[in-house]
Design goal:
SH3 type barrels; 17 strands; single chain; elongated; 279 residues; alpha/beta
């Protein structure tokens, strides 16, 4: 399993280079939600910044904190308008974890299905479903929509091999999961992963790096060091040296400097020091 993060205004201004350096290999970004009182849609205050920066370091996806007691089509339209031109490699996400006090499971399910279907109609991808198994079991009913939505499950127990590995918190509609949010508030990893908050949500993808690359349809350009035995990795073109790599080492390319002289790998490496390969 590989690690990723999900972020929102709670993390304030993220440093996604630090997130990748800490081990993150994907990021889900909160796009927005609507108010509980009257259903007014709004954009997360860090959405634009996160959208513009994160994809240079990590494959990204975007999530909407869905309130099923308010107009689902209106929420889906607003969400899709935010992400329509975003550089997403991960599916959109319906975050389903809250309800009005008097809302029935049948009503929640009906509105979730309307939201998910409209997102599919607008962007051509079924959203993932983010939820907690116990909440989902208690507040929804069986419906064909669940068969269309991959499951991103939240459960905070590091003593188990997978989210219901202790035969507890088993979801009614799923036998498998794609992502697992295994740690959230109070974990103290915020600064390490580039957040200005104390903590940050951490997730697993249910597979290895090769399976993840296939999942996001990402065939990376590789560079292989060939010029010398040791080549400096820099914090930026012309920046301070932060490490070294060896001849024969391969790195996935994350980007290129504007002058075309440097590749961005985990840091930066000069083009004259490498051979290009396609994996």
């Amino acid at each position: 399993m590989i690690i990723g993060i999900d972020v929102s205004h709670h993390q304030k201004e993220m440093d996604f280079y630090k997130a990748r350096k800490a081990g993150a290999r994907f990021a889900f970004i909160r796009a927005g939600s609507c108010t509980m009182a009257n259903g007014t849609c709004y954009t997360d205050s860090q959405f634009q910044r996160n959208k513009d920066l994160a994809h240079e370091y990590l494959p990204v996806g975007f999530y909407w904190y869905f309130r099923p007691n308010h107009a689902p089509i209106k929420q889906a339209e607003y969400f899709c308008s935010l992400i329509k031109d975003a550089p997403a490699k991960l599916p959109p996400v319906m975050d389903l974890e809250t309800k009005a006090i008097d809302q029935s499971p049948a009503s929640i399910t009906e509105n979730a299905a309307k939201f998910a279907t409209r997102v599919y109609d607008k962007v051509g991808k079924w959203p993932l479903l983010y939820s907690r198994s116990q909440w989902l079991n208690a507040n929804t009913v069986p419906d064909p929509i669940w068969d269309q939505l991959g499951f991103w499950v939240a459960r905070y127990n590091l003593n188990i091999a997978h989210p219901w590995g202790d035969n507890k918190c088993i979801p009614s509609y799923y036998t498998d999961w794609l992502f697992w949010q295994y740690s959230d508030g109070g974990n103290g990893y915020g600064a390490e992963f580039g957040a200005k908050s104390k903590s940050i949500d951490l997730n697993y993808f249910n597979g290895d790096l090769a399976e993840f690359a296939a999942y996001v349809n990402d065939i990376p350009l590789l560079v292989q060091v060939s010029a010398s035995w040791a080549v400096s990795l820099c914090g930026g073109p012309g920046g301070p040296t932060i490490g070294a790599t060896w001849r024969g080492t391969q790195w996935p390319v994350l980007g290129m400097s504007k002058d075309g002289e440097y590749y961005k790998v985990e840091a930066w490496i000069k083009r004259t020091a490498v051979d290009e390969q396609v994996n």
